[in-house]
Design goal:
It is a single chain. This protein has one domain (10-301): Up-down Bundle (Rhopdopsin 7-helix transmembrane proteins). Helices cover 73% and strands 3% of the residues. The chain is mainly alpha-helical.
Amino acid sequence: MKTNQTVLMEFILVGFSLYPQVQTFFFVIFFGLYLLTLTGNLAIMGLTWADRYLHIPMYLFLSALSFSETCYTAAIIPRMLTDLLTRSRRISFAGCGLQMLFFLGLGGTNCIILTLMGYDRFLAICNPLRYPLLMTNVVCGRLVAFAWVGGFLISLVETTLIFQGSFCGPNHIQHFFCHMRALVKLSCVDSDRTAIVVTVISVSGLLGTFLLIILTYVFILSTVLRIPSTEGKQKAFSTCASHLTVVLIHFGFASIVYLKPEASGGEDIFTAIPYTVITPFLSPLIFSLRNKDMKNALRKVLGKSDWVP
């Protein structure tokens, strides 16, 4: 147990100050990715709202995911970009707690929404006749609300566990945001025990949602393989391809952050970049790049009547 000397009221985010020679380069890259991420997510939300043809659960879930990821990146990236340009990287005790609460809460919400999107595809492919009754827009809205409540309940528990004790010096967080691993190291209480409990909660949520998605795809694959026509199989697979790709990227990068052994500050910083910056950038790109409905909605908004084949 650490000696309780000075109780900290603010922290300093070390971040990329360890690499001063490339901070400007990082700012340009991350700022560009952030703008593209915002553009992609706002486009998905705007097109879903504007085109009544997209007012179905499949696209309502996608729009909800885009909104959640927009909030998720807003909790981390603007602060990171500011710190890349300034020398003062101080963050208050309350500000650090709020950032962690929103980071963990929105990350959990994204995982649950991705799981619900898999469940939606499961119902559409495995129970097509009952799908309109089982998955209405009202049901979709309630499930999205459940995702937000569930994500933030888990986050509240984790954040409370970490901030329930005092923090003794030093006050330097070896990360570019208030990451739970980096912050637990500064705690005056039994940091090892807190780290284990928080890690178990995070890993359980991560693996739990991922295994549920895999289970839905086992049933989907079993159903698709029984479809007699090749065209029918291709159509069924095409509705799942984007979702499955995002799931693999999302949970793959998340597993690097939560399942790998603890590393040094610099290594932890770089392993967090894919999960906090690259995944939110790729997600709207993958979902909209080969989606005919999204392309057609965009053409309608732009005043072009040509139907995308």
